[in-house]
Amino acid sequence: MKIPWMLLLICLLALGLAACARSGPEAAEAPEEELPEDTVPDNFGAEEFSVEHDGRTIYGTLYVPSRHEEKVPAVILSHSANLTSDSMRSYGERLASQGYVAYAFDFCGGSKKSRSDGDPADMTVFTEMEDLKAVLAAIRNLEYVDEQAVFLFGTSQGGLVSALVADECPDDVKGLILFYPAFNLAELAQKYCGKLPTTTDRLFYSSLLEYDVYEHIGAFPGDVLILHGSRDFIVPYSYSERAAECYAHCTLIKIDGASHGFNSENYAVGGDFDEETWSYAVRYLEEHTA
Questions:
Q1: DSSP states of 96-149 as a string?
Q2: Domain ranges of the chain
Q3: What CATH number should be reported for the domain whose range is 5-27+46-289?
Q4: DSSP-assigned letters across all residues of 204-267
Q5: By three-state DSSP, how is residue 72 classified?
Q6: What is the rounded CA–CA span in Å between residue 216 and residue 126?
């Protein structure tokens, strides 16, 4: 059977397989939008906050409520492949304005525009897991963060990485919010690794050749919320259906009409779904931090 190259390459580029991204045009980054000075909310602050790990610096932005007399819950935001923490800024601002500490960071080598150390040629799902573990430890150690109420929130590849870290660090993670998580990434690598055009580096997907994602997510005992678009052609909805069966406690919400991405910063197709999806995320956090 002839391989549908165009569809395959679109899928791999969108998921951010490192070698494929280098062999084709670089994915465009969503432009940063500056709020007019008189509309900047005054109920939270945002500041650069870096985490040192294994000789590398992980760049990020910490969003903190302006008033917090007691320790407060925290949410760690993990971005999609080929993006940066800028794509999670609106989520961080919303969380902080509602009383949560939020931290959005750039994965090391996560894109050519990453402000963290590291080369995209060396980035894999597993190096991103180590980045997130280091961030998790640092955020839990902040004096104003309730270390028993730290949540992981990830989109696409960042969602996959968040799920895998929660499985390995269940005592450190209160809950999971996953937007269109890339649970099909290993299957794509395994199916097409030997059939792709020659590239200079196959480390990213070769590291997944013998990896079964679903064997590494089900041990997390906490509550999981998954939101996934009904029209997602990059990661079909069925992959989240399968993941939901692995968890002891999981709520899976289908977002009708959405594709891979719920807002312009994450390349939404067919409209902006933030208001709908955000209501589910906030309800989940309120229920688990009451």
A1: HHTT-EEEEEPPTTSSTT--SSS-GGG--HHHHHHHHHHHHHHHHTSTTEEEEE
A2: 5-27+46-289
A3: 3.40.50.1820
A4: HHHTTTT--GGGGTTT--S-EEEEEETT-SSS-HHHHHHHHHHSSSEEEEEETT-BSBSSGGGT
A5: strand
A6: 12
Is the pLDDT at 264 greater than 80? The verdict is: yes
Q: Cα separation of 31 and 222, whole Å? A: 36
Segment 60-83 shows an average pLDDT of 93
How far is 228 from 238, CA to CA, in rounded Å?
9
Of 146, 190, 130, 141, nearest in space to 285 by CA: 146
pLDDT of residue 41: 53
Task: Check residue 263 and give left, alpha or beta (phi > 0: left; psi -120 to 50: alpha).
Answer: beta
Which two tokens mark 175?
A: 């809950």
Give the global pTM.
0.86
